[in-house]
Amino acid sequence: MKKSTIKKAVAIVCACLAALLVAAVIAVGALWGNEISSVASIKMLAEANEQNKSAPVYLMDVKGGYYFDDFLKQGGASNDGELINFVVENITKGIIPITISSPNIGCSSFTGVSAKGDRYFGRNYDFSTSTAMIVRTNPGRGRYASISSVDLQFLGIKDDVPLDGLYDKLLCLAAAYAPLDGINEAGVSCGIYMSYQGKEGEVVSTNQQTDKPDLTSTTMLRMILDYAGSVDEAVELVKQYDLHDSANTSFHYMVADATGRSAILEWVNATDSADTDGSKRTLRVYYNDKDASLGQKEGENAFQYITNFIVTPDYYENAEDMTGLDRYDGIETAINPDGSNTAGVMDEQKALDVLKLVGRRRWDAEHGKTDSNTITVWSALYNLTDKTVLWVSNEGFDEEDAVFTFDFSYLD
Q1: Rounded to an integer, what distance in angstroms lies between the CA atom of residue 277 and that of residue 166?
Q2: For the segment 196-233, what is each residue's pLDDT rounded down to a tens digit?
Q3: Contact criterion met (CB below 8 Å) for 147 and 188
Q4: Do residues 136 and 59 lie in contact, with contact meaning Cβ atoms separated by under 8 Å?
Q5: Which of 161, 194, 266, 269 has its CA 20 to 30 A from that of 245?
Q6: Sequence-separated (6 or more) residues with CB below 8 Å from residue 262
């Protein structure tokens, strides 16, 4: 065979291989483009700190729509297994196995307003040492961009292992489906809180069984962030779905918007000791301007606050079953100590001071409390007017490397 013929054949083979390689790259990009970009965006914001038992903090920008429209179109999910199947099939393309769970957590929130009219939504997330991630989204197509907080332990990521490996980073692709609090670009903020419903030692999950489509705890919060432009819109969205609490636990919610309107959402049936059938629970909504039934202080105050017990009147036979009642009262007293601040007026520092007050290290030490939730993993102060977030890791309010600010400038 002539050398020219051989060279020509080699050139053809090389061209074919190059074409195949380009086709493969295009195919991978079409199939995994958003996921690759999301994983590539992950960066560490804070390292672990053994002195205060804090785990690392990460940031991820989720690219694309993370298939949440498709999730809702298929009717959502009625349990963690169905949610995991959807995430694995659509986001990880069936390759990466994922677990999603919700351990027992203790948290608190409140709303407030600054002297110039900025609306606040404050949130403490109480648990044990756990790796946190700030998740920023911009799904488009009529959905709101959002900034939310995620506990990566829910996705099976250990708190003592940095996200150095590709596998753990791929697990983070499910983080958009596991927010615990957040704000969207419309100025709507929402949080989720354990409610410990059922007989003592036997927490019963809400597990509604009507003909409505289904949502698990964190996907309901994701729906609010993606689609609600106000508290009223959030409530109307929630009413369209059956709630199925995750991991054999029970939750209630608080949502607020930039107008100053807020609401507590609870699912209850009978009284706590008799509330043993999660399928029978129905939604109760208590708005900040229509919550006199909850108590005199609640009726007089324009701001709202929440911890880990059901606020529905006459739900408990005794106060000892009201988990977090001390922090609930502590928040109200801190904001309105003498009854003259019913509007909940506070500046940013005052709002941070309230979060600091009920931070679990400080609160437990000062009140002799001991339970499994010994750390406030993060504190977030959402400014619903400016659409900004002041986020503090592990009660490090006075530590420069533990305080972060976020806004929606990433959309530019």
Answers
A1: 42
A2: 998 876 899 999 999 999 999 999 999 999 999 999 99
A3: no
A4: yes
A5: 161
A6: 111, 121, 231, 254, 255, 256, 287, 288, 303, 304
Give the count of beta carbons closer than 10 Å to the beta carbon of residue 406.
Answer: 18
Residue 101's SS3 state is: coil
Query: 1 pLDDT band (50/70/90 cuts)?
Result: low
What's the CA gap between 269 and 256, in Å, rounded? 25
CATH topology of domain 45-411: Penicillin V Acylase; Chain A (3.60.60)
Query: Tokens for 169?
Result: 């980073």
> What count of other Cβ atoms lies within 10 Å of the Cβ of residue 296?
8
Q: Where are the domains of the chain?
A: 1-40, 45-411
pTM (2 decimals)? 0.91
* Sequence-distant (≥ 6) Cβ neighbours of residue 41 within 8 angstroms: 59, 60, 61, 63
Residue 309 pLDDT level (bands cut at 50, 70, 90):
very high
Is residue 393 within 8 A of residue 359, CB to CB? The reply is no
